[in-house]
UniProtKB/TrEMBL annotation:
Key words, A-Z: ATP-binding, Nucleotide-binding
Family note: Belongs to the MoxR family.
Pfam families: AAA_3 (PF07726), AAA_lid_2 (PF17863)
Protein name, as recorded: MoxR-like ATPase
Domain ChlI/MoxR AAA lid: 265-325
Phylogenetic placement of the source organism: Bacteria, Pseudomonadati, Pseudomonadota, Alphaproteobacteria, Rhodospirillales
MF GO annotations: ATP binding; ATP hydrolysis activity
Length: 337
């Protein structure tokens, strides 16, 4: 009987196989460097790397003090990306993110407008507490996240490549916040919930971070390496069983097309086609991180919650009855698991 990994290698082609073998070790080193700095968040680190390899944006949800900001900065260092941080506040304006045109006068008295780039012109943008800014300011990121460019005064300006937005939200301080609209939530490839570390991890963190010196963060990859990895991800073959699992999972989450009674009763709106695209890319990226030549159904199940949970909404009656999105996604996963 033929080994499935050999079949995947044949389907990928010799160039893709060599690329996977070459990148897998470096990605493993990058993950190890992140785990050495961010304690007890192995799943969060893996999902963050999967998001970047898939070319997407990430929404991190967690209470203060869980190293969300440090994770973004450390990702920038390990991956060799130029990172910037913007603290979102109610008085933040779109120009504070995108940039603005200023009128300048040269020595001859000639006046002309010059565009001053905002902090969005980086490779890794941290949008800290993104839901504290007004909808107008939040929407300023929509074009950047989708089209990799910004338009100011009718002129388009391309963003650096690669470009990724990692946004954070605080789930417990909701006073004075503006919930992200569905159109913007859908632009995030994943929503990752950051929980508390375990006891052993927190002990290790205390010993490592309260001394006189902290271990330096190594640079493992370059932006060119990340772009190469993103290109390799799109060349990794996906078997029919994985494609069918993705379609079954996503389509069953839509009340209009679902055969599951709970979904029809509890879900107000379900995941769109962008969820299917996100899963296709993410399962490939997860396989690449593990040094595999093709993804499996297990990858679909592992990534279902972070990819689907912000692309679904419950009815009022479902929320009143104590139904949660993770419960619904668990029911969907039972169809393919």
């Amino acid at each position: 009987m033929t080994n499935p990994s050999n079949e995947a290698a044949l389907a990928a082609g010799p160039d893709a196989v060599a690329a996977v073998d070459r990148l897998a070790e470096r990605l493993s080193n990058a993950r190890a460097a992140l785990n050495a700095v961010i304690f007890g968040q192995e799943t969060v680190i893996e999902d963050s790397m999967v998001t970047l390899l898939a070319g997407g944006h990430l929404l991190l949800i967690g209470v203060p003090g869980l190293a969300k900001t440090k994770l973004v900065h450390t990702l920038g260092t390990v991956l060799g990306l130029a990172d910037r941080r913007v603290q979102f506040t109610p008085d933040l304006m779109p120009a504070d993110i995108l940039g603005s045109e200023v009128l300048e006068e040269d020595e001859t008295g000639r006046r002309a407008f010059r565009f001053l780039k905002g902090p969005v012109f980086c490779q890794l943008l941290m949008a800290d507490e993104i839901n504290r800014a007004s909808p107008r300011t939040q929407s300023a990121l929509l074009q950047a996240m989708q089209e990799m460019k910004v338009t100011v005064a009718g002129e388009s300006h391309p963003l650096p490549r690669p470009f990724h937005v990692l946004a954070t939200q605080n789930p417990i301080e909701q006073e004075g916040t503006y919930p992200l609209p569905e159109a913007q939530l859908d632009r995030f490839l994943m929503q990752v919930d950051v929980g508390y570390p375990g006891r052993d991890a927190e002990r290790e963190m205390l010993l490592a971070t309260t001394g006189a010196l902290e271990a330096p963060v190594p640079r493992v990859l370059t932006p060119e390496d990340l772009l190469e990895a993103q290109a390799v991800v799109r060349r990794i073959p996906v078997g029919d069983s994985v494609v069918d699992a993705i379609l079954t999972l996503v389509r069953a989450g839509r009340p209009e097309t679902s055969d599951i009674d709970e979904v029809r009763r509890h879900v107000a709106w379900g995941p769109g086609p962008r969820a299917s695209q996100a899963l296709m890319l993410a399962v490939r990226a997860r396989a690449l991180i593990d040094g595999r030549y093709a993804p499996s159904v297990d990858d679909v199940l592992a990534l279902a919650r972070p990819i689907l949970q912000h692309r679904m909404a419950l009815t009022f009656a479902a929320r009143a009855d104590g139904v949660s999105i993770p419960q619904v996604i668990g029911r969907l996963c039972s169809l393919v698991g």
